[in-house]
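Issue 218. Parser rejects a valid record. Input:
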Amino acid sequence: MTKLYRSPVQVELDARAEPRRFRWLGRWHRILKCALDEEGQHLWSKLRTPEPKRYRCETYQGLVCDLCFARESGTWVLERVWD
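Output the parser choked on:
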């Protein structure tokens, strides 16, 4: 089960240009694991807008979420949190 947020977040990247930590609701969350979500990428293929980069991340606190980078606007969004 998930909860949809679509909240703008501040993200710091690692040397591979992947999310290392993000700031949400005034708190920094360090990322333990992060992978590009290939499955979510194809959902945008029929739309005319550029595909956002979507990452499935797990934090050290156990939070599992999807972070998206909107290429058009250059902003990061916490799209959803998984239970």
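Fixed in the parser; the record now loads. Helices lie at 38-41.
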